[in-house]
UniProtKB/TrEMBL annotation, chains A, B:
Keyword Transcription regulation: yes
Classification via Pfam families: TetR_C_6, TetR_N
The species this protein was found in: Lentzea roselyniae
Ranges for domain HTH tetR-type: 10-70
Official protein name in the record: TetR/AcrR family transcriptional regulator
DNA-binding region in chain numbering: 33-52
Protein's UniProt keywords contain Transcription regulation: yes
Listed InterPro entries: BetI_C (IPR039538), DNA-bd_HTH_TetR-type_CS (IPR023772), Homeodomain-like_sf (IPR009057), HTH-type_TetR-like_transc_reg (IPR050109), HTH_TetR (IPR001647), Tet_transcr_reg_TetR-rel_C_sf (IPR036271)
UniProtKB keywords: DNA-binding, Repressor, Transcription, Transcription regulation
PROSITE patterns for this protein: HTH_TETR_1 (PS01081), HTH_TETR_2 (PS50977)
Domain of life from the UniProt record: Bacteria
Length: 198, 198
DNA sequence: GTCTATACTTGGATAGAC
DNA sequence: GTCTATCCAAGTATAGAC
């Protein structure tokens, strides 16, 4: 008979990652201390290190969850008409941008990933999966005559992601209205790949 | 009679910022220690703090220099035909992306700026100047019939910057060839604003 | 002006009682 | 499993000799 309740264990881990995510987004990874997290989560350091071996491990856990969410969306996009699928994936990628507090986290993960190989691998695999699926959808849309690609499907997919990055980059400007700009993003992408005006 | 030679003083400051910039790009701001900088620049900590009050001040100095370079380019762009001016500014913004080591520095400044008000002000002023000039050039190009803007000149200018951000975001992918992709960036922008294919 | 040595602070992680 | 107390390392910045 096990003494640990796996459900409770997972719930507590989740509580810690959720709390930490807010702090990382606000102050950045390096400037958020373990003490900060413990205080916010209302636990002791001893307890925190019972659940996670290091501070970095907490950070990684946050993005592992994110990868699983993504995979689900990609699967659903494959069921639509190709171009609609592309737009759906793009819309989904833009969702976090609409929540101000999440934006800081995205900037942080990019900055950290280039120096943390394990985190990098996680992020890269995730981006790769999105890019591959976008490339497939774009090629299909092209073959079906919905769009007319001026570059390879792969390059187009890369730039679709680049446009989303551009959206995130602009978020640091307090005057930038992300919600309104998502439609401009769609317009730019549509014109790029020769789709009908949306 | 002054005991300090202002030329030598400036040269030494420059030596420190150049050395530090390389380290910041490679390891990030927070993970680069003052000791690291001193070792690489071959000076002592005492000496370093004679030239800069804090570590952050070194970081800021790097980007102050950058702002001055930018202002010069913007002035020259105003002398060309409007659309050529736009393309020249964009090309200039892309130059740092071609140097791998500088890319890390760009990611770092974005991550840091949201938490350092003084640095933020520096970066924001710089971006604002670029955006204003781009908006003016785009509007003139539109009025001259070189392009046909589907959105306000200001929004278009913002997205021109967003595209450049997208380029930087893709740099973390080791397979991404920045040099080749600058032309794709120009294609996307051209189609967006209804310019002749370049 | 530049160095060496070091004071002072903070932070990540651990030990051991309960 | 959770806490308190604490260790040890690293980091910024300063003091004071030269």
């Amino acid at each position: 008979m096990r003494t640990v309740d796996p459900v409770k264990h997972a719930a507590k881990k989740r509580h810690i990652t959720d709390t930490a995510a807010g702090l990382f987004a606000e102050k950045g990874f390096d400037r958020t201390t373990v003490a900060d997290i413990c205080k916010a989560a209302d636990i002791s350091t001893g307890s925190l290190f019972h659940y996670f071996p290091t501070k970095r491990a907490i950070f990684r856990e946050i993005f592992e969850q994110d990868g699983k969410d993504n995979a689900e969306i990609l699967a659903r996009a494959g069921e639509l008409s190709p171009w609609d699928g592309v737009l759906m994936v793009i819309d989904h990628l833009c969702v976090p941008a609409l929540d101000r507090s999440v934006a800081g986290l995205v900037l942080e993960v990019v900055a950290q990933a280039s120096r943390d190989p394990e985190l990098w691998e996680l992020v890269a695999r995730n981006e790769q999966a999105v890019r591959d699926e976008l490339a497939v959808l774009l090629q299909r849309a092209h073959d079906a005559g919905q769009i007319k690609l001026p570059v390879s499907a792969r390059t187009a997919a890369t730039w679709a992601q680049g446009l989303v990055d551009g959206l995130y980059g602009r978020l640091v400007d307090p005057d930038f209205d992300a919600t309104a700009q998502v439609s401009t993003l769609r317009l730019i992408l549509s014109r790029f790949v020769g789709a009908q005006a949306p």
